[in-house]
């Protein structure tokens, strides 16, 4: 709800009390956006909901409210429609004054939240020495967008990368590392073992084939847990190597994260078990310490245990998440913790969150949210894979998006008879290619699966990054064509709204605030994409119907200001999606 709606809601609530008495204080006027612009901008439905209670016809109630309602500074005279809706239509002068107020504001009229708090976004979180797959790409893109929006809204955000950097697989990896790179363990230098995924596969082959190797690997796990120095050194080398590979992707995507992997919480794991023991929730089951929670059963319908500590003393993914949760609440003082992972992990999150609640570890003012997302599918509607059936390397995927963009661009340049420098082509291809991948992901409702298609995401038409970037370029083209400095349009001239296309555009421009609040609530970035897509559509209609540079003053400057405000809104909105704009493309 934006400031205008807040004001109207308040005035309606007051009118209701004035009409029917103090007992109606606090009754929600049920103000919603009008279902059809024909009926105005907003409608209040409270009269219908009170009809029974008051024993009166809703239309009669509506007129009693309207009689006491003074919204003349914001709206045209209210109208009563149908069975008793109160329809409100914004005054043009009100819209003009709102636009004139935000046009010089760097936040474009979006105030910082009054309820700023510490929020953690746990996202990306790939696993060391394993493939960073498209699922991690989704997490990275969605998590970054959520973090950007929360930061912009004025929250203190901790962007945490919960990398999987611990576990028994390191026994195998370290043993193999000692075998093939014995020198690596005695030098302090960073190691380059090439592709870690291949390394992992080879280590696994050795492990599966050789029992002595397996035994050594088991001993390495014990040594790692005991913190034996050279084993720890080997583990660090492996983490370093992965980290460098992940960083290439983060750089390409322009995403910042603070790494705080699973290993960070090792010192706090025993306390989780101890404290759970005290709550009486822990049960011994075949030597393992576990908890039975409501609603979790296996295929046979038997209760499914959540294992906290295995019979060999080792801990699980969930134990680490419990320790991590306590740390985030107690040490980080987080008030909302957002986990961005694939929907396949939903059970894991429900389980450990339910347990933490039962154990009384979650204060009332702390909110935990799992933000699940669907799968990325290939053309065949199965999990996205390479033609040979392997997982797609993210590096290759992003490179491919960039090189396809480049090919499209080069073809377009020939078609348009344009000549551009290599630097220009390279930059446009990179920005558009990466943006296309991001936008294709963000513009889908994250909970659904989507089909990955370069052709679709790179199309210049439709709800795509190239289309959005092009809309921005168009606005900048106007300033170039007319030799106009948008920053210097003069302070005396004001935005005036005459044509329908101007009014519709104006209303959209004033909705950014509301959209951002919505995304902050629902954590659905596709809402922001939809908004920006609609906005560019409204802008195109305006641009087709309302001449800008050829108009007389003061219309000309007013329209230029609308162009500028649209450009700024697109730029800000795209930035919140993690997408950079281009001046030309
Ligand atoms: N490393 C996990 C994976 O690759 C994701 C971790 C998500 N965060 C968490 N706190 N569990 O699936």
From TrEMBL:
Localization per Swiss-Prot or TrEMBL: Cytoplasm
GO cellular component: cytoplasm
Catalysis performed (reactions): tRNA(Arg) + L-arginine + ATP = L-arginyl-tRNA(Arg) + AMP + diphosphate
Keyword Magnesium: no
Keywords: Aminoacyl-tRNA synthetase, ATP-binding, Cytoplasm, Ligase, Nucleotide-binding, Protein biosynthesis
Sequence motif 'HIGH' region, location on chain: 126-136
Superkingdom classification of source: Bacteria
Example GO biological process: arginyl-tRNA aminoacylation
EC number of this enzyme: 6.1.1.19
Family (UniProt): Belongs to the class-I aminoacyl-tRNA synthetase family.
Descriptive protein name: Arginine--tRNA ligase
